[in-house]
Design brief:
Elements lengths: L16 H17 L1 H27 L7 H32 L3 H4 L5 H31 L6 H25 L3 H17 L12 H8 L2 H14 L6 H25 L6
Helix pairs in contact: 1-5, 2-3, 2-5, 3-5, 3-6, 3-7, 3-9, 5-6, 5-10, 6-9, 6-10, 9-10
Length: about 270
C-alpha cells in the first residue's frame, strides 16, 4: 500500500520562495514581453504631457516653488505615470486570467495569500521602477533635471507602485468584465492621479479643495517624489510617508483577506 503520510502538507518551509520568485518572474516577463505598450508608450505619453504643458503654459507661468515650470511638472508626471502603470499591471494580469478562466492556475499552486500578493506586487513595483527610471533619464537629458534626494524618490516610487498595485488587485477581483475595469480606471484612478497636485501646487487651490487634496494619499506620493527630485514640496515627506504606509497596509490587508477567502475568485 502506498504511504499517504504527508500528502497535502506544506513542504516549502515558512515561505515558498521558489513559488514567489516564479510568480514574480512571470509578472515581470509579462510586461517586458510587450515593452512597446508597457514601457515605451508611458514614456511617450509622459513626454507629450510635459511638452504640451511647457509649450502652452510654461512660457507665461513663470517659476513654481522656485524652479521653472517644466522642472516642477516633471516629478508629478513621473509619479502619475508610475501609479497608472502599477495599477494596470496587477489589474490586467488578474482580469485577463479571470476572463480566460485560467485564474485557477495561479490559485492552485502551494502559495499562501501573502505570497500571491507579493508575487503580483513584484510585477507592479518592477514596472513602476522601469517607468520611473526611463522618465528620470529623459528629464535629465532634456531638462537638465537632477535628483536632490534619490532615497526619497525610490521610497515613494516603490510605495506608490505597491499601493496602486494593491488597488489593481482589488479592482480586478471586483470587476467581472473589462468594461467594469475601464470604469474603475476612468472614474477613480485617473481623477486620483490628475487631482493630486500633478500639474499644480495645492497652495493655489481654494481651502475646501486643499482639505480634499490632503486626504488623498496619492497627493503625498506625488509630493514625496517632487521633494526627492526638487528638494521642495507642498508638505513634508515625513508627513506623507506614514500616511502612504498606512494606506498601503490597509489596501494590502484587503487583498490578503480576499485571496484567503477566495472572494469572487473561487466558485
Amino acid at each position: 500500500m502506498t504511504d499517504m503520510t504527508g500528502m497535502g502538507e506544506r513542504r516549502f518551509g515558512r515561505v515558498n520562495w521558489l513559488g514567489v520568485a516564479t510568480l514574480a518572474e512571470r509578472e515581470v516577463r509579462r510586461f517586458l514581453a510587450v515593452w512597446s505598450q508597457t514601457l515605451m508608450a508611458p514614456l511617450i505619453t509622459a513626454g507629450l504631457f510635459l511638452a504640451i504643458f511647457s509649450l502652452a503654459i510654461g512660457t507665461r507661468r513663470g517659476e513654481v516653488m522656485g524652479v521653472p515650470f517644466a522642472q516642477f511638472l516633471a516629478p508629478g508626471i513621473l509619479m502619475m505615470t508610475v501609479i497608472q502603470n502599477a495599477f494596470a499591471n496587477t489589474s490586467s494580469a488578474i482580469m485577463i486570467a479571470k476572463v480566460q478562466g485560467n485564474i485557477v492556475d495561479t490559485l492552485m499552486p502551494p502559495l499562501s495569500p501573502a505570497e500571491l500578493v507579493a508575487g503580483y506586487l513584484a510585477g507592479s513595483i518592477g514596472r513602476g521602477l522601469f517607468v520611473a527610471g526611463a522618465i528620470l533619464i529623459v528629464a535629465a537629458i532634456f531638462l537638465g533635471q537632477g535628483i536632490t534626494h534619490p532615497v526619497w524618490v525610490l521610497v515613494f516610487v516603490v510605495l506608490g507602485s505597491a499601493l496602486l498595485g494593491g488597488l489593481g488587485i482589488i479592482a480586478a477581483i471586483l470587476a467581472n468584465k473589462f468594461d467594469q475595469m475601464a470604469a474603475i480606471t476612468n472614474f477613480i484612478i485617473t481623477p486620483l492621479s490628475f487631482l493630486s497636485g500633478t500639474f499644480y501646487s495645492v497652495e493655489g487651490l481654494p481651502p475646501a479643495m486643499q482639505v480634499l487634496t490632503h486626504v488623498n494619499p496619492v497627493f503625498y506620493l506625488i509630493d514625496g517624489v517632487r521633494f526627492g527630485v526638487l528638494g521642495t514640496s507642498d508638505s513634508s515627506p515625513w508627513i506623507g510617508l506614514p500616511i502612504c504606509l498606512l494606506a498601503t497596509a490597509a489596501v494590502l490587508a484587503i487583498c490578503l483577506r480576499w485571496f484567503r477567502t477566495g472572494f469572487r475568485l473561487k466558485p
